[in-house]
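Before a colleague's protein record goes any further, I have to sign it off. What it holds is a sequence and that sequence's fold in token form. Would you go through it and say whether the fold makes sense for this chain? The record follows directly below this note.
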Amino acid sequence: MSTEPRWLTEAENDAWRNLSLMQLQLGAFLGRELASDGLSYPDYLVLADLSDRPDNQARLHELSRQLGWEKSRVSHHINRMQKRGLIDKTRCPTDQRGWNVTLTDEGRAAITKAAPAHVEAVRRHFIDLLTPDQISALDAIARTVLKHLPISGLDRDSHDS
């Protein structure tokens, strides 16, 4: 077995770097847009996930897995959001070691206020730039990669955002 790395071809390297730059720059741009509504991009991701659930509630470890965040990151972020009144965090009644995270009325108001402008920004700076075939290909690519990653423990087909 060769110990030589399998270096990326020029085309592979360009694709990887452009994807990485797009993700970083688009995330930063969308975060700046959300800041005018008093939310960070991670705040929005948590609120959107909770608001998409029928009971507006998730186990803390589910949020961690869904967002691809380390346990400590999600725990610290949830604590900050709780202090701001956007979510509640309570012990799970069936497992006292676990925590439930629930969207509050304040959190619902924040996501309801921020969502229209956020979706418009996503549309204007991403979706509207692509053809339907590109969107379909991108979705297929993302699903392939997400299914391969060890953190994608949730069935992403059953909880699309």
